[in-house]
Amino acid sequence: MIVFKLSIKNMAxxxxxxxxxxxxxxxxxxxxxxxxxxxSQQAMLKVSRVYKxxxxxxxxxxxxxxxxxxxxxxxxxxxx
Length: 80
Description:
Elements (H helix, E strand, L loop, with lengths): L1 H36 L4 H38 L1
């Protein structure tokens, strides 16, 4: 009986000491599964498709702007 009381008292002290480790472990596992589940979320797949489409549009616009700038510079150099 004394051993049981002693172990309960020791366990109560240890809970205070190790609770931060346990909470950190739970938080780490939760974040791990959260990031792993992002790939299968429909909303994230939709965002990914929209991002890819917008990226292609932005690349086209960038090339158009680049070509216009180069053409303008060549025209200005020919005039002067």
